[in-house]
TrEMBL record:
Pfam families: HTH_HVO_0163_N (PF24266). Residues 13-80 form the HVO-0163 N-terminal HTH domain. This is Regulatory protein, arsR family. Coiled coil: none annotated.
Length: 177
């Protein structure tokens, strides 16, 4: 279930932004703007100051800037940012059941193999997923640390706009096949 947009209340905007980032680690810039109902320039202004004051950390992952509590480990930050994307998150959830072939994961997630591979690139680079080859060269996907992955997944609740964007991407991908 999607969270409602953050309410304005009487708190100063910068405090609202800081509190929201700390409560929702890994949100990307556009999602933060939507949820807090801020103008992009206003959000940039406050986020820059929060980053300079070391109250928030910004990190670019796969072309999007995500925001975190500075106390979150850099490895965890990358995982959380990746798991904010529905396709990557669903692929990882499938792999919690154990190693699987890429075609099976793509089928379960409901995406083309090329779309899955795109998301796997980031997951492999982050050390979340590994590709194992058997003697015949066939690939099997496996989580490198299922327990850490499950802990990270519990911290993420995707928003409705995130889910809709991911589903639109899937639709376009299916139309292009």
């Amino acid at each position: 279930m999607s969270e409602p947009p953050a309410t304005r209340g009487d708190r100063p905007t910068r405090e609202r932004v800081a509190d929201y980032v700390l409560a929702h680690p890994g949100l990307h810039f556009n999602e933060l703007v939507r949820r807090l109902d801020l103008a992009p320039g206003q959000a940039q202004y406050h986020l820059r100051r929060l980053v300079r004051a070391d109250r928030v950390v910004d990190e670019e992952v796969s072309g999007r800037t995500h925001y975190f509590d500075p106390g979150i480990d850099p490895i965890e930050r990358e995982r959380l940012a990746l798991f904010r994307r529905e396709t990557a998150r669903e692929a990882v959830v499938e792999l919690l059941d154990g190693p699987a072939r890429p075609d099976a994961v793509a089928g379960e997630v409901g995406v083309a193999r090329s779309t899955l591979e795109h998301h796997l690139d980031g997951l492999v680079d982050a050390g979340v997923v590994e590709k194992r080859r058997d003697a015949r060269g066939r690939v099997t996907l496996a989580l490198t640390d299922p327990e850490a992955t499950a802990r990270s997944l519990r911290r993420i609740e995707p928003s409705l706009p995130d889910r809709l964007l991911d589903r639109f991407t899937r639709l376009v991908d299916a139309l292009l096949e």
